[in-house]
């Protein structure tokens, strides 16, 4: 069974088997990552949490591939401080279970000087979780660690702690380290979110170096601020296709990251900026997200945005993508696709939706959403065909949705309600 299927079905036993027994290091690393991502499902009725942590500790200690060991440490991080400390205790010989937080931070800070890089990585990760600001200086000094895996985790820890005083040393690494460390540094600056951190990201958003521009627009999607929207919108016209696409992904991500008290303002700002952008640079990446992305938040926001920024040239392509999304497994994504389709009424859409409704091979969820859209955009032809459809369908759900659509179209129907 493919790893993505094991992830979808939360098959912990098989994932642990891949982690422990696969001869392919990439598969072992990916199995560790998936086990980390499934943290919320371990420990309940699904699977014993301790068994997962034991397997990850063993991989972090003993696997012969450094990327697998790093992936296992990051997965342990997903299981919380206790899981990390189990690994640290086993590899260092120190019992830190019942130690006060300030003392624990001191022990972990000492671990930054350990000979074993995996212990330094775990120590940095643990310090970021504890969040004691008195270790910021120690962490910042260790940004010169010879192992890039350690530098990544130190940058991540500084971002978690959110100390503006660490911005200068992070900014230095933003310009001179290897690519994956630079990415982590940029994320840390975005997580810190102070004025000086934001300034560093904005400064490199128009740098001559394409790599730096891409890193900046990637990180700015984590800020959830109006200021970031303007920079990302400008990046949609970047000469680099990679930067343009990253900017769009970040704008979509930013919709999810915006704080509740600023969400409406940020959302309106994004719509305004995208409406003014070149449509090809704005619409095509959104269609690509719906077609390829597996991240729920991205797909929801892409579906919502398409209905609000697409004009005539890309209307048909946007309709295609949204129709395909009507049957999405995520109910909110399918609802956003339906409401966006209702905003993109145009030639042939009514006919396409009617054919979809009358296709018995399509799932009920998709056909129900199509009936909802028809209730918004349909004309006389839709009313006549839906009337005939409700008379012959054997599905109570579709009959109810059909009556709801008819009531909106002026036919005989039941009281309507969105997505009843």
From TrEMBL:
Gene3D superfamilies: Leucine-rich Repeat Variant (1.25.10.10). GO terms for molecular function: oxidoreductase activity. It comes from the Archaea. This is HEAT repeat domain-containing protein.
